Amino acid sequence: MKRIFPLILSIVSTVVFASNGIDRDAIRAVIERQMTAYPQSTLMDYYKNLFQDAFGPGHLIGENDDAEASARNYLLAECKAAKGENDLYADYEPTGIHGRFCRVNLSVVNDGRVPFDVFFAAFMQSARRFVLPSVAEWAKEWKEISRELRKYKRKIANFDADCAAIDAMLAAGKYVVHHSKQYSDAYHPHYRLIETSIFEQQIKPLLQSKTSNNMKKQDLSVLGNEDVFKLIGEEWMLVTAGTNDKFNTMTASWGGFGWLWNKPVAFIFIRPERYTHDFIEQNDRLTLSFYDEDYRKALQICGTKSGRDIDKVKAANLTPQPMESGTMTFAEARMTLDCRKLFKTEMTEASFIDKETLARWYNNQPGGSLHTIYVVEIEGVYTGEK
Predict the structure, then answer these.
(1) Helix (H), strand (E), coil (C) string for the chain
(2) Between 20 and 30 A from 21 (CA), which of 4, 30, 361, 377?
(3) Is the full-model pTM beyond 0.85?
């Protein structure tokens, strides 16, 4: 079951505004999606997402003879600036209410999944084929949207000041804004807008081809090639439990491998409040999966967001892949351990011989409840053939 941000294909390139208002459920869905994914958003950031859906990237391209060369150089410079920044953006996500465009993260260029020239051509095609609405048309739609946004006023930073600034800007016949400093500092956004049908045809297949993964079962001895301290402690892993119909995953950096009861085992530590804990309790099996550095951002998302609040798999742009045993991994994994639960126990304060460890990691620490310890048998080791 493949999970990605839902994309609504544009049937026509011209923006058409409904004369009798817009879908308020769709507005609320956009607001709540942004509120969950980017809680540091100010009203200006909500506005930016929505106006991008109406206008696309056309305003970034000038009319002069060297406009294309300028846009190319600017994109090259931004790709360079984006390297090394720890952004938490998904690879791609739809804009606004109608999903006419995708925000496509420049990381897909920087990590080599999409060639620069292909990306730039798709961006330019998106900028030039889309018919822009008038500012007056957009101001009318924004008026409808802002009524719904006002219901969330207490949860949106800088609401009144941004609202006044946007109204004044539109009255002056302008519509373009930048992300707020608060948003930029939190998320380091580096992306370009690509029209959805162009993205589906030209960019998305490249992302899928680079993440498609045929799992091949290996001998357990391949684990001997791994530095387990680095593998878990530095590279991290995803702990995933559930079935194709319903599952959850979380990032973990504590655990280990060993030999117990004449079986190859792994041991993992899961706090009871983690949503994944519920899935581990309800299922006999789980997977531990490991990833190349290219997927560090995905693991950060899976470690900082809760599956109770958002679809983490969608936010991280991971591709669910069922295992033959019935549990789940992800096509992007370079290695997956298919495991069966053998034993669990709950930590207790009395069990700690070193009380400094208890004080440091548990007592009075945020999210510091004592872990459940699971010992699982490693029944299969699978590597991805990319």
Answers:
(1) CCCCCCCCCCCCCECCCCCCCCCHHHHHHHHHHHHHHCCCCEHHHHHHHHHHHHHCCHHHCCCCCCHHHHHHHHHHHHHHHHCCCCCCCCCEEECCCCCCEEEEECHHHHCCCCCHHHHHHHHHHHHHHCECCCHHHHHHHHHHHHHHHHCCHHHCECHHHHHHHHHHHHHCCCCCCCCCHHHHHHHCCCEEEEEHHHHHHHHHHHHHHHHCCEEEEECHHHHHHCCHHHHHHCCCEEEEEECCCCEEEEEECCEEEEEECCEEEEEEEECCCCHHHHHHHHCCEEEEEECCHHHHHHHHHHHHCCCCCCCHHHHHCCCEEECCCCCEEECCCCEEEEEEEEEEEECCHHHCCCHHHHHHHCCCCCCCCCCEEEEEEEEEEEEEEC
(2) 4
(3) no
